[in-house]
Amino acid sequence: MTARKHPLRSTIAYGLLAALFLLPLVSFFGLLLPGGRALAAAGLLLIAGYGLLLAAWSGNGRRRGGLMVFLLPLVVLLGHGTPALFWSTALVALAWYRSFFLFGGRLLVHLPLELMLCGGGWFLATTCGLGGAAGPLTLMFGVFLFFLVQSLYFVVGNHEGEGEAGHDPFEAARRRAEAVLGPDC
Prior knowledge:
By secondary structure, the protein is an all-alpha fold. 73% of the residues lie in helices and 0% in strands. It has 9 helices and no strands. Helix 1 (7-32) packs antiparallel against helix 7 (136-150), helix 2 (38-58) runs parallel beside helix 5 (83-102) and helix 6 runs antiparallel to helix 7 (136-150).
């Protein structure tokens, strides 16, 4: 089972791993960054890691240059931006990277889907896990919910650039058989 063939399951698994690694990352960044920026730095690292996972699925050549998109939230994090500005910038970077650089270059076509997924993931993460007086388990639950919502990208959208991951397996098998047998059969 490879990540290229199962992006839905792999995104859910990444969300679980991200939730498990959240607290050690927050503790590490708490030693390096002043104030409450440790959670933001850990979140940015987890979102950029998800971007790398998406890049492995896309299989196109634009993935390396696109990772530069995640420098914008880093600038906001290291500057004196508010947490709301940071998180909205990080989510815009994720949406831009996923829909423009990786899967077809049609950000405006995927804009409603990206708004639903990034906004819905942020809403669930903040209301169920990250909002209010969040303890360690609720923080981890919020991160898992965010990536659980992000996995819907591979269910709802039509992604031509992702290979055969989002298509009917029987249709993919038929196309491969036609390619082997030739156009005359």
